[in-house]
Amino acid sequence: MALQIYSTLTRRKENLVTLNSGKVRMYVCGPTVYDRAHIGHAMSSIVFDVIRRYLEYRGFEVQHVMNYTDVDDKVIRRARILSFEPLKLAEKYIDEYDQHLKDLNILEPTVRPRASEEIPAIIERVEELVAKGFAYSVDGDVFFEVSRDPNYGKLSGRHLDDMQAGVRIEVDERKRSPADFALWKSAKPGEPSWESPWGLGRPGWHIECSAMSARHLGDEIDIHGGGNDLIFPHHENEIAQTESLTDRAFARYWVHNGMMQLGGEAMSKSTGNVLSIEEFLEMHEADVLRLLVLNSHYRSPLSFNDEITEAAKRGLDRIKGALKPAIPGDDDSSRHPSKPLTDKASQDFIQAMDDDFNTPRALSAIYELVRGINQARDAGASQQELGVAQDKLREIAGVLGLRLTGPRGLESQASGLVELLLEIREELRESEHWALADRIRDRLSEQGVMLEDGKQGTIWHFDGQVG
RNA sequence: GGCGACGUAGCCAAGUGGUAAGGCAGGGGUCUGCAAAACCCUUAUCGCGGGUUCGAUUCCCGCCGUCGCCUCCA
């Protein structure tokens, strides 16, 4: 069974056939950096990170480009409010986002271009569109003429006629049609601007992605991705611009993730209805966010709330729990072979992910493996046998980008003391001094040191950590 | 108004033309001095009404409800 990807363009799952066999060129629209990023941005980055990781797991070499939009109305507006240099402000948020990517265990994209650093390529692109008659300039602005593209609307399923009725926004009178969009904007005083054939100005939003995609990946790519709020007009316009010039399909697969909602509403700055990545990571480890994102399908909208966060946290603990070592002393390998278990998990995992990256189903395979491991441990499997399955668990969880680690570093320093307390407690238990023994357990638990009494003695680990 | 998506147990969430994965929470057990963890058992007539079919949660139509986009947005 081949790997299938749902493409917004055809509204179907398609077999993945790349331009160059064994290689995937993927462009993902990154954030406009005018403010702190929220967990919705994180969701998008996590989704495409998992797609990338899985493609690599399946043997593809992935070129992953993610852009930062750093020249934009919103950046300029916000910079003015904060009395900041627009590009400096953007840079600050880019640095922040780069850090978020690391914190969230997102593989570094192959290239992270920013609009401000790609101006020549963008101008070249606009010039070409003007030269070929797809765009026109007016007073230093350049617009793409939508009516020149007979296929306009094919991605979003919109028709120009339908849309005109709905346009309530003030239309720029100089445009030949309200749907025409800016490729180049003339600069107002104080705005970041660059020399161009049309005077000082800056690129429009849509053209930057097309130009950067073409520059870093070529005129044709395999996957173009982003949030589904970008389908119209952004990606529609990108298709128009690019395909008018190349006459070939810009991207083979258009992949869009669903929006994350907060409290049942779209996350929106205006209502203060946002949770920043930073705020989330102050409360929970990155794996929690990843797990809650992956628990639903990437194309579905996801309502973020405390309940699903708590569920993800517990689910994560459960997965980590499977990595606990075998019970010492019990050692009957022959009765608990791990191979059938790991084979099944592998197979289910791949089958799920091959089906348009069905991570909920993939997680289900992971949980089945978790249960299998725990059953084997309870039944007395040896560490050697258990380790095989645990390695498989780490492997496929790793494909989803889960770290499955906890706070480390303290362990070696603390272990001596903890061991000492355990020894004392063991003697207390032997002499049935339960109250004192329980007090040690309770107080250690408050410090994040969790004790588990078993037949073979007591084992301990830090809260949330296994291993 | 236009385009699109969704509606599955208390919550989250897969999925199939032949009576439904997984997780969280709940209930009952096993284990334990107690607990924790783990394991076992247990909780769904798949929004409503029609239609197609031997048979639909799954296909079609209508309705109701929720949401996204149509303007900057991952």
Task: Break the fold down into its secondary structure elements and pairings.
Elements: E1 4-7, E2 12-15, E3 23-28, H1 39-57, E4 61-66, H2 73-81, H3 86-103, H4 119-131, E5 135-138, E6 141-144, H5 160-166, E7 181-186, E8 201-203, H6 205-217, E9 221-227, H7 231-246, E10 251-257, E11 260-262, E12 265-266, H8 277-283, H9 286-294, E13 302-304, H10 306-321, H11 339-354, H12 359-378, H13 383-399, H14 410-430, H15 434-446, E14 449-454, E15 457-462
Parallel strand pairs: 3-4, 3-9, 9-10, 11-13
Antiparallel strand pairs: 1-2, 5-6, 6-7, 7-8, 11-12, 14-15
Helix pairs in contact: 1-9, 2-3, 4-6, 6-7, 9-10, 11-12, 11-13, 12-13, 14-15
The structure holds one RNA strand of 74 nucleotides.
Describe this structure in words.
This protein is of the alpha/beta class. It has three domains: 4-278, 3-Layer(aba) Sandwich (Rossmann fold); 319-399, Anticodon-binding domain of a subclass of class I aminoacyl-tRNA synthetases (Four Helix Bundle (Hemerythrin (Met), subunit A), Up-down Bundle); 410-462, no CATH class. The protein has helices at residues 39-57, 73-81, 86-103, 119-131, 160-166, 205-217, 231-246, 277-283, 286-294, 306-321, 339-354, 359-378, 383-399, 410-430, 434-446, and strands at residues 4-7, 12-15, 23-28, 61-66, 135-138, 141-144, 181-186, 201-203, 221-227, 251-257, 260-262, 265-266, 302-304, 449-454, 457-462. Strands 4-3-9-10 form a four-stranded parallel β-sheet, with helices on both faces. Helix 11 packs antiparallel against helix 12, helix 11 (339-354) packs parallel to helix 13 and helix 14 (410-430) packs antiparallel against helix 15 (434-446). The chain is elongated and about 90 Å long. It binds one RNA strand of 74 nucleotides through helix 1, helix 5, strand 9, helix 7 and strand 12.
